[in-house]
Amino acid sequence: MNNIFFSYLCSMDKNEFHSFRLPAEWEQQDGIMLIWPHEDTDWRPYLEEITEVYLQMADAITRNEELLITARDIESVRLLLAERLSEEQIRRVTLFACDNNDTWARDVAPITILSSGEPKDYFHPRHLLDFCFNGWGKKFAAEKDNRINRQVYKAGLFYGTLENHKDFVLEGGSIESDGDQTLFTTTSCLMAPHRNQPLTKEEIDEKLRSLFPNVERVIWLDHGQLAGDDTDGHIDTIVRIAPNDTLLYIGCDDKEDEHYEDFRLLEEQLKLLRTTKGKPYRLLRLPMPDAIYDEEERLPATHANFLIINGAVIVPTYNQPEKDKVALETIQTAFPDREIVGIDSRTIIRQHGSIHCLTMQFPSLLPKER
């Protein structure tokens, strides 16, 4: 905990501190953050293709809200955006120059908690929690990525107080919030090597509830890891929360698929879960995409890795018309009042992620949507 935040915390009364909560993704947002790819990232072999995907995401996002882009070369990004976006959309874009190892904003950018308290000299109702990102358990270099949040904050582009939590590894893709009392995560990820050892599962559970004061329980899912997933099983690839106690999850019907048994067990676990009111969750099943390979390696294709923004949901598709159609229609059922926007994500999964992994939302201080 940094000294600046510690002084804020000491000045708060208990009620102010405990009014903080981790919003659900479908609540009102101020904007989205992207980290732009360049030739010295792993995107180099297909930089043109991934840049096109980023332009499509930027277009979909700026039709609905603000967009913060960090990039090594902001002038080249500015030119690309000028060719693709309208003047009104361009006005919604903020560009900031800084270097990066990779582009997975979901796991690099801060996780935002909000308070119902009023701003004061010693207190801001938005805190941006800056956790340690260590390349998903020291698999990949992350030193430049770990500096991005501090650089953006010093430039005055984060509205709120940046909290230093670099002593704890937590990736945004590893947790899902209902905005109320429940946090979802996976045992395979949070207990994976090189994260937070020697902490036990019980100690990590307690840590999560202390970081997010509204959370009264953490639901640990024990099944559902995708082949080719570098993250050790991020929850945003298999199970997502939607309004009205709804869970969207990946199911597998092919008994010959290597995922079949693990995802059958995931489905059984979800059926046994209950809300804080003791009721079963409303379960909406998303199809398992047909296997996609890069040479001989299976890639972690999933429709669950969608991004919820103001007025829309951006959904990864995989040029599999029947399964893409079912996924888009199922997600529309969960979000009936939002436009469903499909973006071909076959290039993204070549680096073992998808749309949600590349993005991070900044929730608004406006009253939450339900």
From TrEMBL:
Molecular function (GO) terms listed?
agmatine deiminase activity; protein-arginine deiminase activity
* Positions in coiled-coil regions: none
Q: Does the keyword Oxidoreductase apply?
A: no
Q: Which UniProt keywords apply?
A: Hydrolase
Does the record carry Glycoprotein as a key word? Answer: no
Give the superkingdom in one word: Bacteria
UniProt-listed InterPro entries: Peptidyl-Arg-deiminase_porph (IPR007466)
Q: Which GO terms describe its biological process?
A: putrescine biosynthetic process
| One protein family per Pfam | PAD_porph
Q: What is this protein called?
A: Agmatine deiminase
Q: Taxonomic classification, please?
A: Bacteria, Pseudomonadati, Bacteroidota, Bacteroidia, Bacteroidales
